[in-house]
# Entry
Amino acid sequence: MSETEEVETAEEKRLYERITDRILSSSYIKILRERLSGERKTAIIVDGPNFLRKVRDRQIKLEEIDEVAKDTGLAIVKKVILNEFASEKLIQAITNSGYEPIVTSYDIHITMSIEIMKILQKNKSVGLIVIASRDARIVPILLKLKEKGIETAIVGFEPGLSVAVKKMADQTFLLN
# Structure
């Protein structure tokens, strides 16, 4: 190999490194790398009775929550909290959507709090909790998560999304 071939190879290497650095520094690439590498892990918790209902003659779907939450990171835990009146058909649909149904005879918000704390204890790598709810009763949950340094996101819809919830969450996503 001649000297000119080595020089060209070194120049090509420097050019390749510059191009690679520029591409990898793009904010879109950073988000994509974070999601693909699993650097940011999230958990999604859905207030079933408050959220899985018809709004303006349209049924809210778990896939819609997944769609808006996908940009927040890799969801490693997905749960829907339901009351004891949930039908078997609803429970089956939740399971088929990739969520774990949690049926409780207690207050939904107490169960949500317990489930979130279990998730954080079991999965230390979770850095963001996505909560699908419109109810102001989740504000204490958001406060506790902020106290622990955990980022929060709310998925909601109008009418009825609590102003307090919007102000407490780090991010808010509205479904149309």
The radius of gyration is 22 Å. Residues 3-24 form the longest helix (22 residues). The chain has a mean pLDDT of 84.
